[in-house]
């Protein structure tokens, strides 16, 4: 539930920033697109895990989260019950989220 709340609050904040013309449309579209792509990657990885097929590397999943797909990653973890028990993976994911949010805030502070 916490993860979903974080995602909802972030997306609401992003939407409000866009409506107030504080962020460009491409920023909003990038977060939404990367989130959707990351969500799909988690789903593919979960399906491949069940069918014992070649998996998507954890590094790839983390990179997509860091680039802005972390809302999709958090939602996918809950939807697919995937990557929810691996503590090191979860730690890196939340660290990527922190870095991403700080970078977004800093870019807004600088006026980018």
TrEMBL record:
Protein name: DUF1294 domain-containing protein
Entries under InterPro entries matching the protein: DUF1294 (IPR010718)
Residue ranges crossing the lipid bilayer per the database entry: 23-44, 89-109
Domain of life from the UniProt record: Bacteria
Keywords from the UniProt entry: Membrane, Transmembrane, Transmembrane helix
């Amino acid at each position: 539930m916490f993860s979903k709340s974080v995602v909802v609050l972030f997306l609401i904040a992003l939407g409000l920033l866009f409506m107030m013309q504080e962020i460009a449309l491409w920023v909003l579209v990038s977060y939404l697109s990367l989130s959707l792509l990351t969500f799909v990657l988690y789903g593919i990885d979960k399906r491949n895990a069940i069918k014992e097929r070649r998996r998507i590397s954890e590094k790839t999943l983390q990179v997509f989260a860091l680039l802005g797909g972390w809302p999709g990653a958090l939602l996918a973890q809950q939807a697919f019950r995937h990557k929810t028990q691996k503590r090191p993976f979860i730690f890196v994911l939340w660290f990527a989220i922190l870095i991403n949010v700080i970078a977004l805030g800093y870019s807004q502070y600088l006026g980018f």
